[in-house]
Amino acid sequence: MDRDGFWGLVEGARGQVDDTVADADGVADALTKVLGGMEAEEIAGFGVELARLLVESYRWDLWAAAYLIKSGASEDGFDSFRGWLVAQGREVWEAALAVPDSLADVVDEDQPDGFEGFDGEGMLHVGSHAYKNVTGDEAAYWKAVDAEAPDTPDVPLGEEIDFDDEDDLETYLPRLCALYLDSLS
What we know:
Elements: H1 3-14, H2 24-35, H3 40-56, H4 60-69, H5 75-87, H6 90-98, H7 126-135, H8 138-148, H9 166-172, H10 174-184
Helix pairs in contact: 1-2, 2-7, 3-7, 3-8, 7-8, 9-10
């Protein structure tokens, strides 16, 4: 599956959800259903493309944005944030990779009570769930994806950002700092 095909599927799933910012799991559910109607090889191709995107987005500046938006982000938290970011669609994804501070236009620092906080972990598993539903063999999905997907770098790409240094964060993410920095103190 190529990148255009990948994003076409994501956009189709997004169209079934009223508020993708608050409901990345809804996008994941819709996408799992769509993928469930495809051949196993296509589902694995979706997983390979997702893996490529996750490697490309394993960057210090984007992790710093996740750290601010989520009031902290472990490595797992950063992974789930990137799943959330996929659920926002290609336009938001590409803008965030070009300029992570552009996420200030997407997020709402005043989310309602009970909002779980920019978590898209379900998006990271849509391929494996759909593959298992189609074939009954989730392990085969991971074997197929791992055979084609690039390896994640040992450290994030780009210049390291000290998440505990407000000046460093403000250098890279002034708009997000204006929205979120007080919540980290």
